[in-house]
Design a protein that fits this description.
Elements lengths: L7 E3 L22 E6 L9 H16 L8 E3 L10 E6 L8 E9 L5 E9 L4 E2 L7 E2 H13 L15 E2 L11 H10 L17 E3 L6 E7 L8
Parallel strand pairs: 2-3, 2-4, 4-6, 7-8, 9-11
Antiparallel strand pairs: 1-10, 5-6, 5-11
Helix pairs in contact: 1-2
Length: 228
């Protein structure tokens, strides 16, 4: 897979479903989706139980969207390893230092997602308690799980989980915005809850990538002023 960027088609929606190189919106055909966590390379300032707890809460946020048939399940050891999706630390971060994590998804020509991988920047200053001088791990991971579902970046709502940036000490993206929930319902409707009013008209636009999969970056925002 070439690491070249994010392919997103913007419809008249505040949320943005991701689209593969064949022009198909990507999503999982079958739920549940099993995932596993690789703790190797975790930075010392974050304990293993804290990292895993943040990750579990991130998946749980999307599982709880009313009206969406989203179901992520942590591996229990019975699923073959080649069918698992992994979240892992990348100690030697080779991308821009402002990128907190990267999600890669692989899909069939028709848009069916077959696999995802979430790489966490092991060189970022992470915390799990919302301290102002660090980046919140759960905040970032909840965003990345949205990419693993098939959502792109939400440029219309800075407070949305799928907004492309986060600030130091920010924890608000742990909780999904109505736009995020609408995105989940759009891709995985179960018919029990209608989409809300988070959508807003927007002109169609397409950002083309050369990647075979979809790569999405979540960046940290530089502080514009000194905080006391």
């Amino acid at each position: 897979m070439l690491i070249a960027g994010l392919l997103i088609a913007s419809q008249a929606l505040a949320f943005e479903p991701a689209v593969n190189k064949h022009g198909a919106e990507v999503s999982w055909d079958v739920m549940p989706v099993h995932w596993t966590y690789d703790d190797e390379g975790r930075p010392g300032e974050v304990a293993e139980d804290e990292a895993l707890g943040a990750l579990r809460e991130a998946f749980a946020s999307w599982n709880a969207v009313p009206g969406a048939r989203v179901r992520f399940i942590e591996d229990d050891g019975t699923t073959p390893l080649d069918e698992l999706n992994v979240v892992y630390w990348k100690p030697e971060w080779e991308w821009d230092a402002d990128i907190l994590a990267l999600t890669s998804t692989w899909s069939q020509e028709d848009g069916e997602i077959t696999r995802f991988a979430i790489a966490i920047n092991g060189q970022a200053d992470w915390a799990t308690d919302g301290r102002k001088e660090s980046m919140d791990l759960q905040n970032a991971l909840t965003h990345e799980v949205g990419h693993a579902l098939g959502l792109g970046h939400d440029e219309s709502h800075a407070e949305a989980t799928m907004a492309p940036t986060a600030g130091f000490g920010e924890t608000g993206k742990r909780k999904l915005h109505r736009s995020d929930e609408d995105g989940a319902r759009y891709l995985y409707p179960d018919g029990s809850v209608p989409m809300g009013c988070a959508s807003s008209p927007a002109p169609p636009s397409v950002l083309w990538a050369l990647a075979l999969g979809i790569l999405a970056a979540f960046r940290s925002r530089h502080r514009s002023r000194k905080e006391d």
